[in-house]
Amino acid sequence: MDELAEQVPYYSDAKGLVEWAIGDIGAGGVALLLMAYPMRFVMASAARMCGAGGFTFERVSVWVGLIGQCADIVRSSGTRDHHLSSVSLRLPVMRVRGARIARGTVPIFSRRNGPLKAHAAEVVEALRGAEAALDKEPQKAARDLGRLALTISERYALGRLGALLDEGDLKPPRRMGDALRLSITAVLVAVIVIASARHGVPEPAAIAAAVVVVAILYQSATAGGIAGVGLIVIEILLNAFFPGK
What are phi and psi of 139, to 5 degrees? Predict the structure, then answer.
Protein backbone atom coordinates (compact mmCIF):
# COMPACT_ATOMS: atom_id res chain seq x y z
CA MET A 1 0.00 0.00 0.00
CA ASP A 2 2.87 2.38 0.82
CA GLU A 3 4.50 1.68 -2.56
CA LEU A 4 1.20 2.31 -4.34
CA ALA A 5 0.81 5.60 -2.49
CA GLU A 6 4.24 6.67 -3.73
CA GLN A 7 3.54 5.66 -7.35
CA VAL A 8 0.02 7.04 -7.72
CA PRO A 9 -0.43 10.79 -7.14
CA TYR A 10 -3.07 11.73 -4.59
CA TYR A 11 -3.61 8.04 -3.73
CA SER A 12 -3.77 8.79 0.00
CA ASP A 13 -6.24 11.62 -0.52
CA ALA A 14 -8.44 9.45 -2.74
CA LYS A 15 -8.32 6.60 -0.25
CA GLY A 16 -9.26 8.94 2.59
CA LEU A 17 -12.13 10.34 0.53
CA VAL A 18 -13.46 6.84 -0.22
CA GLU A 19 -13.21 5.81 3.43
CA TRP A 20 -15.02 8.98 4.48
CA ALA A 21 -17.78 8.42 1.92
CA ILE A 22 -18.28 4.80 2.92
CA GLY A 23 -17.86 5.33 6.64
CA ASP A 24 -19.68 8.60 7.28
CA ILE A 25 -22.04 9.12 4.35
CA GLY A 26 -22.68 5.39 4.13
CA ALA A 27 -23.49 5.19 7.83
CA GLY A 28 -25.88 8.09 7.50
CA GLY A 29 -27.55 6.49 4.49
CA VAL A 30 -28.04 3.18 6.30
CA ALA A 31 -29.39 5.02 9.36
CA LEU A 32 -31.89 6.88 7.18
CA LEU A 33 -32.90 3.59 5.54
CA LEU A 34 -33.57 2.00 8.92
CA MET A 35 -35.45 5.06 10.20
CA ALA A 36 -37.52 5.80 7.09
CA TYR A 37 -40.02 2.99 7.53
CA PRO A 38 -41.04 3.64 11.16
CA MET A 39 -40.89 7.42 10.65
CA ARG A 40 -43.65 7.23 8.01
CA PHE A 41 -45.98 5.74 10.61
CA VAL A 42 -44.96 8.31 13.23
CA MET A 43 -45.51 11.29 10.90
CA ALA A 44 -48.85 9.99 9.64
CA SER A 45 -50.09 9.24 13.17
CA ALA A 46 -48.95 12.64 14.46
CA ALA A 47 -50.73 14.42 11.60
CA ARG A 48 -53.98 12.59 12.31
CA MET A 49 -53.74 13.31 16.05
CA CYS A 50 -53.35 17.01 15.26
CA GLY A 51 -56.45 16.90 13.08
CA ALA A 52 -54.56 17.35 9.83
CA GLY A 53 -57.21 15.86 7.58
CA GLY A 54 -55.52 17.44 4.59
CA PHE A 55 -52.54 15.16 5.15
CA THR A 56 -54.76 12.11 4.84
CA PHE A 57 -56.35 13.27 1.59
CA GLU A 58 -53.39 15.17 0.11
CA ARG A 59 -52.59 12.19 -2.06
CA VAL A 60 -55.99 12.47 -3.74
CA SER A 61 -54.84 15.78 -5.21
CA VAL A 62 -51.80 14.03 -6.66
CA TRP A 63 -53.99 11.52 -8.50
CA VAL A 64 -56.30 14.33 -9.63
CA GLY A 65 -53.26 16.10 -11.05
CA LEU A 66 -52.38 12.96 -13.00
CA ILE A 67 -55.94 12.84 -14.36
CA GLY A 68 -55.53 16.44 -15.53
CA GLN A 69 -52.28 15.57 -17.30
CA CYS A 70 -53.99 12.69 -19.09
CA ALA A 71 -56.88 14.96 -20.09
CA ASP A 72 -54.41 17.42 -21.60
CA ILE A 73 -52.96 14.65 -23.77
CA VAL A 74 -56.40 13.60 -25.01
CA ARG A 75 -57.41 17.19 -25.81
CA SER A 76 -54.10 18.27 -27.32
CA SER A 77 -53.05 18.06 -30.95
CA GLY A 78 -49.87 19.84 -31.99
CA THR A 79 -48.67 20.37 -28.42
CA ARG A 80 -49.10 16.74 -27.41
CA ASP A 81 -45.35 16.17 -27.15
CA HIS A 82 -45.12 18.68 -24.32
CA HIS A 83 -47.97 17.07 -22.42
CA LEU A 84 -46.51 13.58 -22.89
CA SER A 85 -43.18 14.69 -21.47
CA SER A 86 -44.88 16.24 -18.44
CA VAL A 87 -46.55 12.99 -17.31
CA SER A 88 -44.81 11.61 -14.23
CA LEU A 89 -45.82 8.68 -12.02
CA ARG A 90 -43.23 9.36 -9.33
CA LEU A 91 -45.60 11.03 -6.84
CA PRO A 92 -48.73 9.00 -7.75
CA VAL A 93 -46.78 5.78 -7.21
CA MET A 94 -45.42 6.99 -3.87
CA ARG A 95 -48.92 7.90 -2.77
CA VAL A 96 -50.27 4.48 -3.73
CA ARG A 97 -47.56 2.71 -1.75
CA GLY A 98 -48.21 4.89 1.31
CA ALA A 99 -52.00 4.82 1.10
CA ARG A 100 -52.48 2.28 3.87
CA ILE A 101 -50.33 4.38 6.22
CA ALA A 102 -51.81 7.79 5.48
CA ARG A 103 -55.46 6.73 5.41
CA GLY A 104 -55.33 5.80 9.10
CA THR A 105 -57.75 2.87 8.98
CA VAL A 106 -55.16 0.10 9.41
CA PRO A 107 -53.25 -0.40 12.70
CA ILE A 108 -49.45 -0.31 12.41
CA PHE A 109 -48.86 -3.96 13.31
CA SER A 110 -52.04 -5.35 11.79
CA ARG A 111 -51.86 -8.47 9.63
CA ARG A 112 -53.91 -6.57 7.07
CA ASN A 113 -50.79 -4.59 6.12
CA GLY A 114 -49.29 -7.53 4.22
CA PRO A 115 -52.17 -8.03 1.75
CA LEU A 116 -52.57 -4.26 1.38
CA LYS A 117 -48.91 -3.84 0.52
CA ALA A 118 -49.13 -6.62 -2.08
CA HIS A 119 -52.24 -5.00 -3.56
CA ALA A 120 -50.49 -1.63 -3.75
CA ALA A 121 -47.62 -3.23 -5.68
CA GLU A 122 -50.10 -4.61 -8.23
CA VAL A 123 -51.77 -1.19 -8.53
CA VAL A 124 -48.39 0.45 -9.14
CA GLU A 125 -47.58 -2.06 -11.87
CA ALA A 126 -50.93 -1.36 -13.53
CA LEU A 127 -50.17 2.37 -13.57
CA ARG A 128 -46.72 1.79 -15.00
CA GLY A 129 -48.11 -0.49 -17.68
CA ALA A 130 -50.56 2.19 -18.77
CA GLU A 131 -47.79 4.78 -18.75
CA ALA A 132 -45.58 2.60 -20.97
CA ALA A 133 -48.36 2.48 -23.57
CA LEU A 134 -48.25 6.28 -23.97
CA ASP A 135 -45.52 5.85 -26.58
CA LYS A 136 -47.67 3.50 -28.67
CA GLU A 137 -51.18 4.91 -28.54
CA PRO A 138 -51.02 8.23 -26.65
CA GLN A 139 -54.73 9.07 -26.53
CA LYS A 140 -55.91 5.56 -25.63
CA ALA A 141 -53.16 5.12 -23.05
CA ALA A 142 -53.92 8.53 -21.54
CA ARG A 143 -57.59 7.60 -21.21
CA ASP A 144 -56.67 4.31 -19.53
CA LEU A 145 -54.19 5.97 -17.19
CA GLY A 146 -56.69 8.68 -16.28
CA ARG A 147 -59.38 6.08 -15.62
CA LEU A 148 -57.05 4.15 -13.30
CA ALA A 149 -56.12 7.32 -11.41
CA LEU A 150 -59.78 8.28 -11.05
CA THR A 151 -60.70 4.84 -9.69
CA ILE A 152 -57.80 4.88 -7.25
CA SER A 153 -58.71 8.31 -5.90
CA GLU A 154 -62.38 7.36 -5.44
CA ARG A 155 -61.59 4.04 -3.73
CA TYR A 156 -59.02 5.68 -1.45
CA ALA A 157 -61.49 8.38 -0.40
CA LEU A 158 -63.98 5.64 0.48
CA GLY A 159 -61.35 3.76 2.50
CA ARG A 160 -61.30 0.77 0.13
CA LEU A 161 -57.54 0.30 0.41
CA GLY A 162 -57.68 -3.35 -0.59
CA ALA A 163 -59.60 -2.59 -3.80
CA LEU A 164 -57.98 0.52 -5.23
CA LEU A 165 -58.42 -1.12 -8.64
CA ASP A 166 -60.55 -3.98 -9.90
CA GLU A 167 -58.99 -7.40 -10.38
CA GLY A 168 -59.10 -7.04 -14.15
CA ASP A 169 -56.92 -3.92 -14.01
CA LEU A 170 -54.26 -5.29 -11.67
CA LYS A 171 -50.90 -6.59 -12.87
CA PRO A 172 -48.40 -8.75 -10.96
CA PRO A 173 -45.41 -6.69 -9.83
CA ARG A 174 -41.93 -7.34 -11.13
CA ARG A 175 -39.64 -8.66 -8.42
CA MET A 176 -36.15 -7.41 -7.76
CA GLY A 177 -33.63 -9.78 -9.34
CA ASP A 178 -31.77 -12.13 -7.02
CA ALA A 179 -28.36 -10.88 -8.20
CA LEU A 180 -29.30 -7.22 -7.67
CA ARG A 181 -30.79 -7.95 -4.26
CA LEU A 182 -27.66 -9.85 -3.21
CA SER A 183 -25.37 -7.08 -4.47
CA ILE A 184 -27.26 -4.36 -2.60
CA THR A 185 -27.27 -6.48 0.54
CA ALA A 186 -23.52 -7.07 0.38
CA VAL A 187 -22.79 -3.37 -0.13
CA LEU A 188 -25.03 -2.26 2.74
CA VAL A 189 -23.63 -4.85 5.14
CA ALA A 190 -20.08 -3.81 4.17
CA VAL A 191 -21.00 -0.17 4.87
CA ILE A 192 -22.35 -1.15 8.29
CA VAL A 193 -19.14 -3.06 9.10
CA ILE A 194 -16.85 -0.19 8.06
CA ALA A 195 -18.95 2.43 9.81
CA SER A 196 -19.21 0.41 13.02
CA ALA A 197 -15.43 -0.16 13.04
CA ARG A 198 -14.72 3.56 12.54
CA HIS A 199 -17.18 4.79 15.12
CA GLY A 200 -16.69 2.08 17.73
CA VAL A 201 -20.17 0.61 17.46
CA PRO A 202 -20.49 -2.63 19.48
CA GLU A 203 -20.56 -5.76 17.35
CA PRO A 204 -24.01 -6.90 18.58
CA ALA A 205 -25.50 -3.59 17.43
CA ALA A 206 -23.73 -3.84 14.06
CA ILE A 207 -24.94 -7.42 13.59
CA ALA A 208 -28.49 -6.38 14.48
CA ALA A 209 -28.34 -3.54 11.92
CA ALA A 210 -27.06 -5.93 9.26
CA VAL A 211 -29.88 -8.38 9.96
CA VAL A 212 -32.44 -5.55 9.74
CA VAL A 213 -31.05 -4.44 6.36
CA VAL A 214 -31.20 -7.98 4.99
CA ALA A 215 -34.73 -8.41 6.36
CA ILE A 216 -35.87 -5.21 4.63
CA LEU A 217 -34.43 -6.30 1.27
CA TYR A 218 -35.84 -9.82 1.53
CA GLN A 219 -39.21 -8.94 3.09
CA SER A 220 -41.00 -9.88 -0.16
CA ALA A 221 -38.83 -12.88 -0.91
CA THR A 222 -41.53 -15.41 -0.07
CA ALA A 223 -43.67 -14.33 -3.01
CA GLY A 224 -40.66 -14.64 -5.29
CA GLY A 225 -39.78 -18.09 -4.03
CA ILE A 226 -36.38 -17.05 -2.65
CA ALA A 227 -37.05 -16.79 1.07
CA GLY A 228 -34.47 -19.51 1.69
CA VAL A 229 -31.90 -17.56 -0.25
CA GLY A 230 -32.36 -14.59 2.07
CA LEU A 231 -31.53 -16.76 5.09
CA ILE A 232 -28.45 -18.12 3.35
CA VAL A 233 -27.36 -14.58 2.48
CA ILE A 234 -27.63 -13.53 6.12
CA GLU A 235 -25.51 -16.49 7.26
CA ILE A 236 -22.83 -16.01 4.59
CA LEU A 237 -22.47 -12.26 5.14
CA LEU A 238 -22.43 -12.47 8.90
CA ASN A 239 -19.79 -15.23 8.80
CA ALA A 240 -17.71 -13.19 6.36
CA PHE A 241 -17.84 -9.86 8.19
CA PHE A 242 -18.26 -11.11 11.78
CA PRO A 243 -16.24 -14.34 12.00
CA GLY A 244 -17.06 -16.53 14.96
CA LYS A 245 -20.48 -14.93 15.52
Answer: -70, -45
Could you write out the DSSP letters of every residue in 38-105?
HHHHHHHHHHHHTT-HHHHHHHHHHHHHHHHHHHHHHH-STTHHHHHHH---HHHHHHHHTHHHHH--
Helix H segments across the chain?
2-7, 11-20, 26-49, 53-75, 80-86, 90-97, 99-103, 113-132, 138-157, 178-199, 203-217, 221-224, 227-241
Q: In order along the chain (245 residues), what is the average pLDDT of each group of 10 residues?
A: 48 52 55 59 58 66 93 80 86 89 80 91 94 92 96 94 95 70 72 72 70 66 44 55 55
Cβ neighbours for 6, distance < 8 A, ≥ 6 positions apart: none
Q: Are 26 and 190 in contact (CB under 8 A)?
A: no
Give me the phi and psi of 35, to 5 degrees please. -90, -20
Q: What is the CA radius of gyration of the chain?
A: 23
pLDDT in tens, 150-203: 999 999 999 999 999 999 999 988 765 555 666 677 777 777 777 777 777 677
Spatial separation of the C-alpha atoms in residues 42 and 59, rounded to whole Å: 18
Question: At residue 173, what are phi and psi to the nearest 5 degrees?
Answer: -75, 150
Is 178 in contact with 229 (CB distance < 8 Å)? yes
Q: 181: exposed, middle or buried (C-beta count within 10 Å: 0-12, 13-18, 19+)? A: buried
